[in-house]
Amino acid sequence: MTKTEEIRKVLQQQNADAAWITTPLNVYYFTGYRSEPHERLFALLVQANGEDVLFCPKMEVEEVKASPFDGKIIGYLDTENPFDLYPKTFTTLLIESEHLTVKRQRELSQTFDVQVYSDLDQSIKDLRNIKSQEEIEKIKKAAELADKCIEIGVSYLKEGVEEREVVNHIENEIKKYGVNEMSFDTMVLFGDHAASPHGTPGDRKLQNNEYVLFDLGVVYEHYCSDMTRTVKFGNPSQEAENIYNVVLKAEQSAIEAIKPGVTIKNIDKIARDIISNAGYGEYFPHRLGHGLGLEEHEYQDVSSVNENTLEAGMVITIEPGIYVPGIAGVRIEDDILVTENGYEILTHYEK
């Protein structure tokens, strides 16, 4: 069953006429064609009657024809109203309420005479939550390239080098391996500067005997990796080493509990309890992890409030951290595939 046929199943279940999909990554997920349309309309219309229609700027029509999408293409000029090119009536329309603007919804109501809107967001999240084998292979390659980034960064460390210098070196060198895009802004933080979980690399210079935190990921064929390593430069203080060892134990213990059927919040609890029992609970201010795929942060949320269970085919991150101002910030993160019998760690740089 194709992905658009999965949406048609949702239409049947909700007795809806069509689905209107507008998030560029979701349009790519269902069509195999990716675009960043800026202010222009870019949308996929999946209809219960079996017809799929892709609205795109006219200058992209030939690229769409060369993509896997085999439905109807509505290409429009910048001077045209794309809605005028496909007048239809849909009583019930499923939309991505988390993405659709009020302006676009008004246009849909005027063009398609929609009477009822319902949310499609969770249905798409559920589909994207379980990865196909093809998606898994792409994420594995992205993870392998993230490992290479850490290797490049660690080998460049020297006393007096600035955080931003290391970031630039990683991003320049990884291009030699075919990487054109990072998953997010690469983070390299030294010593106590890493005590800010989302710190910004700057001109802080590396000193001997402190930890270096790397948080990065790459995009491979539209799929993301996201990993963190905190590595020694010299011999950090005993307290900093203690913090590292607690985080490592928390991460490893949480990963070892991963398998289908386990409640997600229990994975978070395992890591959080280890950190709390060591006296650092107040210094672990974020969730344990998140889903990973076309986006570096996507469904599911690996947190203390998620009562969903793990399923084979999910890819999640596990990333406990302890951030003590003036001392050190330590986070260790891996990308994990949930398998039929347990888990597979996709990121392999040493810890």
Structural write-up:
The chain is of the alpha+beta class and 351 residues long. It is 32% helix and 22% strand. It is built from 9 helices and 18 strands. It has helices at 3-14, 24-31, 61-65, 102-112, 121-129, 133-155, 163-173, 238-256, 264-277; strands spanning 18-21, 43-47, 52-57, 72-76, 92-95, 116-119, 187-190, 210-216, 219-220, 223-224, 227-233, 289-291, 298-302, 315-318, 321-324, 328-331, 334-338, 343-345. The strands form 6 sheets. Strands 4-3-2-1-5-6 form a 6-stranded mixed sheet. The protein has a 3-stranded antiparallel sheet with strand order 7-8-11. Helix 8 packs antiparallel against helix 9 (264-277). It is elongated. The relative contact order is 0.11. The model has no long low-confidence stretch (mean pLDDT 96).
Note the main attributes of this structure.
elongated, three-stranded antiparallel beta sheet, alpha+beta, six-stranded mixed beta sheet, single chain
Spatial order of the strands forming the largest sheet: 4-3-2-1-5-6
Say how many strands there are. 18
Largest sheet, in brief, is: 6 strands, mixed
Q: From the alpha-carbon coordinates, what is the Rg to the nearest angstrom?
A: 23 Å
Number of helices: 9
